[in-house]
Amino acid sequence: xxxxxxxxxxxxxxxxxxxxxSVTPARAQQEKLDDRLxxxxxxxxxxxxxxxxxxAERTDAxxxxxxxxxxxxxxxxxxxxxxxxxxxxxxxEFVVRVGDNISQYDHDKGEFSIGLFRPGFYVQVNAFGQMxxxxxANADVARAIPMPKEEARAFDARLIANGRSVTNEIHxxxxxxxxxxxxVTGARVVRAQITSARLLDRANNVVYTPRxxxxxxxxxxxxxATASATGSGAGKEMDFAHADVAGFRVGLxxxxxxxxxxxxxxxxxxxxxxxxxxxxxxxSLVVNEMGCYSLPGRRPxxxxxxxxxxxVDESDVVRSIRIERVFPWLDAEVFRATMVKKYGAVxxxxxxxxYALGWGPAVDQTLVYDRSGPHTAVAAYYLADDDYLSRSGxxxxxxxxxxxxxxxxxxxxxxx
Amino acid sequence: MNCSIRPGLALLGVALAATMAGCGGQRxxxxxxxxxxxxxxxxxxxxxxxxxxxxxxxxxxxxxxxVMVVDGDQAYAGSSPVxxxxxxxxxxTLQLPDGTAAELVPVGDALELRFAGGERTALxxxxxxxxxxx
Lengths: 416, 134
Hints:
The structure holds 2 protein chains of 2 kinds.
Chain A: E1 30-31, H1 35-46, H2 52-57, H3 60-64, H4 70-87, E2 93-101, E3 111-113, E4 123-127, E5 130-136, H5 139-143, E6 144-146, H6 149-161, E7 165-177, E8 189-200, E9 206-208, H7 219-222, H8 254-265, E10 268-272, E11 283-287, E12 306-312, E13 318-327, H9 332-343, E14 348-351, E15 355-362, E16 376-384, E17 399-406, H10 408-415
Parallel strand pairs in A: 5-8
Antiparallel strand pairs in A: 1-2, 2-7, 3-6, 4-5, 7-8, 8-9, 10-11, 11-12, 12-13, 13-17, 14-15, 15-16, 16-17
Chain B: H1 13-23, E1 26-27, E2 33-34, E3 41-45, H2 54-63, E4 67-71, E5 74-77, E6 80-86, E7 92-95, E8 101-107, E9 110-115, E10 120-125
């Protein structure tokens, strides 16, 4: 039997953590979720490999086996796990009960918020000796408790009597990988869809039942808002063949882009392909090269600086654009929310030295300017400028936001 | 010269393209437009160092409106045209290339860009860049 513990016992009430460039998302106290089955379902649905032999080594049966019997027991346990993985049902509905809390009433929006359903929060799942982060793709739909003020006053009094704490009973299905909000990053982010939920007080009375609209992943979609033609703010699929970054699209001739770049940003330099260059591109148009970086000994980049690099192919057609701008300090959550509003559900999110989000189809990484980042048609980066030599030690760093677009249909055709 | 295109005149594509070129902007069937090289004014986010308006400046950047050419009732952001509707009070409603809605409101000699979500940022006329390239 699996000897892994489901969660750390004794976790206190849900910690509220504001999203920042080095965020530590909050973990929720949970009861009786079958962590092992969640993990198996995740691996089944995503196809992400599970090292069943390594997992088998951690089982009680293998640990208790004698040296003589161990190889056979290990083989049997590995086979058992393989069979469990193969037999796991992708449509299985799970239930988890999580300690949660309700925010103060937002008088401007006329609503309360449910803590767990805010960006950056997840349920920790431990199985097979590794951690999984369970996020809810349609948390936005369930997050708000809208209420007129007078009704909210009585509701708030009831919450205060319970210390604002509730139990969040969530029914969900595992649907894939990654946090569509781009807030929870790292390995093994389990994407789940809430099918129903209810908030309970200490006496197990229902405090509130969020309205979950089947298939809606955002509050806007649940309310039937219309999406823009190319945007996906209401959950509509983005058309990446016509996407833009800061208003710039790909697919036009370099001679048509260059005058616009010059008019907006200043002199444009054309560079022809050099040694060890990006293999898919023949030339680039560059504006304000290095003008967005703060380098030691150089005048630092200041807010408002804009730098552009557009890559063109052998036919002089623009196939990739990277545009960046320097801002004064800006919270990473503002960046995340703005980007998700424009491009929709995040396909890839990374957080290390920088915070990076990606959307759209994967592209050949040799075509991407920042090869460390998401290798997707659209990518956005949030980088804090840590050049402490160029500014006072107490000042907040500037932030550089970089947007990158690669012509995905062209890249795909090129790959064939 | 009338720079507007009326629906149904697509068969006159060549003549219309020539007309549009004479107006300073050019459009193609993909919705991509070259910003005029001379006509109109370039407007950019004012006070870029202001932290209070940084969220609005970010939204302007992402939507392409952080630097725009405004030429009467035509506007260009990035490589795309902006749909402009002018109201009687002088305010212009913009539909930016990615569908973001905003208003361009005169404030003295300057403009203010106001987004539907409440974000606002002042715009200033940009000083001309040197025209030489390469």
